[in-house]
Amino acid sequence: MNMLLGEKLKKARKNIGMSQNEVAEELMLSRQTISKWELGKSISDEASLDSLYQCLEINNEEKTVLQKLVHNK
Question: Which residues lie closer than 8 Å to 73 by C-beta, 6 or more apart?
């Protein structure tokens, strides 16, 4: 996964004041999973990404940028 994507996800999470634990609980995942996404070590399927984008209140413009990063692994 692109490291830039992970950095953008982390920034979005911090912008709304959520911890990794809070995001993980919201998405019914482990904190470690969120950490791996933010560190660029892994990324999940499109459905999980859509849920993550909603949770992090990512707008459509930024979502388009992030989706391009996902597909350019």
Answer: 1, 2
